[in-house]
Amino acid sequence: MTRPLQIGLTFIIIQLSFGYLIFPDLIYDITNTAHWELVMCLGIFQLFLIWMYFKGLSYFPQSDVVEVYLKLGRWVTFLYFIPFVINLILIVAFNNRLHTEVIISIFLPRTPYWSILILLFFISAYTATKGIGTILRCSVFISLLVIPLVAFNIFSSTVNFDLHNLSQVWDLPIQSWLDIKFFYLLGLSPFLFLGFITFETNISFRKLIVAWISVILFLLSVVYIPLFIFGQETVVRLSNPFLEAMDSVDISWFSFNRQTVFFGVSLVGLVIFANAVILLMIGHVMEKMFQPRKVRAPHWIIGASVLSFVLAVIVPNKSLNEQYFLWSIGAQSFFMVTTPFIVFIYGFLSKRGVLKYEK
Amino acid sequence: MIGCISIILLSGCWDIKDIDKRALPLVIGISKENNDDYKVTLQIPIPQEDAHLSRTVTGSGETVASVLGQLRTNFEDAIDYSQIRLIVIHKNLAKNQKELKKLIKFLMVSEDIPSRALVSITDDNIENVLSNINKKLGVHASSIYDFFNKGAGWAPEIFSVPIWEVYRSLYSYTKDLAIPVVRSGKDTVLTFEGAAIMKKGILIGRIRPDEGQLVNVFQNKNEKGRIESLGFASIIVTNSSIQNKTSLNNNTPLVTSDLNLKIYILERKAGITNRRIKKELEKVTEKRFYHILKQSQQNHTDIFGFGQQFRQQFSYNELKDWRNEYYPNLKVNFKVTANIE
User: Which residue among B154, B179, B207 closes a domain?
Assistant: First the structure.
């Protein structure tokens, strides 16, 4: 009973971690009006992919995505998962760097970024080496710490709301469908990890919908809080709209006089957790792919995190980092669309093949 | 093991600055003299028991950021700008649109200065405003900031505008902003002089405190506590509420506003009826409103923020033309209803 809850929480936390920083900027760039329609479209597309992913995996009981691919052939697996792993390493690097810059701007203005990076990498790699059980237990802990803060941030920012700031609610311009940034958005709503843990434990699609609904509500709040406070004209000019929205709230009775510090702390928790999950995926894929070699997952995880730490340190500046992050997120969305399709089609075909064979 | 880890981790605290080693300025004044240099003045309270002391420090340089850095260099303690609560901008600087825009953008983006700090404009010498506090007896060092935060019902004319609202008004299509104007007082630390109207970073004009209050009523601020003198009687407003209805005919916007005032009569001359006081108050308020509206329509400055209420009716591209195309044609039916308690 607790396992589905933990997986659901893991799903929510990862979405929170990716939702705060780049997500609202992309939404505001794509459309001036009817932002919620875009969020809903994204959510429904994501839900469709997850459904297909689960359906595909259900044809192969007791196996995860990598094992399904291995049935297709070793070389196919290599060709598909080596770029996937490289991309994940890049995402970990750029994501950590991105969060480091934000943490510095919130409460550590005089700290060099490499020391924060060391902290983030050390804890997330350590968590990842401890395995899936630890991460799932962590999810409960982190959500107990972070979700009240998220809720508090949302409620306290209502004091600055001006509901009139909203531009038109209904007209979503048609060209926003074709915008390449829509795929960046998709890349920011990761769900592939679900296929890497199903073999140990199972969460039904129906239970995941509850988590999905709370994620959609959260994403709407991330998009609409800055919009209610600043309005579309201003929001497109801010580099971190959600952060500025948090910072605009004057609560002098609160510790440190500002809630942004707490927002920053919750970001640290979220990003460490999300990275731990990604590193776990890397370790898992590599271990399965090179099975006869007997290099265990923790070693792969440590190797990958050292590599991405070096990458994160050598990125020269903030704007380049953001650009690289978007590119790797775009590449990630390619995997997020193709993996469910491949698993589903292969599962469907092999099931029919098996039936024929039995006759 | 624990010892080793703490040696490594705690070495990070080596050059920490404790709070008693920091100077925390509360107010920052920015002006521009005849030459091109910015002059920045800080008001820094000196924490001491019983004494309400503060000192002012001034520096000048090419940009505000450079002056802030220079002050940091020259000051005895480490200056921590994160507690700044009020920014006083001199009129000469505020008059220049380009400079003002640059300054507001800097204040918004700056990681040191919180974007919640309030903004006000002064005609007076900045140093006078900031140091006036030391000449008054028994005034607390944070009183310049307290001036703007009296709380509901105490001084409804005074309003405050944080940096992020000024920043927002630089880009907003449908709403302009009133920024409070102060000067150093003779007996009190500050005197409130009304508001300056800003449209996209340009100062359009000034309005009096009572007019400024009427503007704020449209931002749903309560008028509770306002005292109005009608010549033959004085009243105090105990509650207020406003309802706006909008409609659009052939691209001509129409707003119907009903302002309800609950009043209490403080004094009256002999023989003046309640009805007469009511009528007079309604007439005075309506006249005041139409006066500001006419002026602001001529200036294409939507000081009341009526455009905000039409954001659903117009498409996003049409909103860009709100000030110039639609706002001058706006019709407002403003009706005041006063009720005596």
Answer: B207
Domain boundary among B207, B227, B259: B207
Q: Are A57 and A68 within 8 A, CB to CB? A: yes
Number of H helices, E strands in chain A: 15, 0
Q: What range defines the domain where residue B290 resides?
A: 217-340
Could you tell me if B319 lies within 8 Å of chain A, comparing CB atoms? yes
A167 vs B12, B164, B316: nearest CB: B316
Do residues B93 and B136 lie in contact, with contact meaning Cβ atoms separated by under 8 Å?
A: no
- Which residues face B32 on adjacent strands? B38
Angstrom distance (rounded) from CA B159 to CA B32: 25
Number of domains in chain B: 2
C-alpha A74/C-alpha A70 separation (Å) is 5
Q: CB distance from B172 to chain A under 8 Å?
A: yes
Q: Are strands B38-47 and B118-122 parallel, antiparallel or unpaired?
A: unpaired
Please enumerate in sequence order all residues whose Cβ is within 8 A of that of A45, keeping only pairs 6 or more positions apart, or say none: A186
Chain segment B91-149, per-residue pLDDT in tens? 888 888 888 999 999 999 888 888 889 999 998 888 888 888 777 767 777 777 778 87
Q: Is B171 on the interface with A (CB under 8 A)?
A: yes
Interface list for B 103-142 with A (CB within 8 A) = 108-109, 111-112, 114-116
* H helix runs in chain B, sequence order: 2-10, 64-74, 91-95, 97-109, 126-135, 143-146, 163-171, 209-217, 274-298, 316-319
- d(Cα B301, Cα B280) in Å, to the nearest integer? 29
- Does A244 contact B115 at a Cβ distance shorter than 8 Å? yes
The H-or-E segment that residue B246 falls in is strand B233-249
Q: What is the pLDDT of residues A188-236, one digit of tens each?
A: 888 888 888 755 556 778 888 899 999 999 999 999 999 999 988 899 9
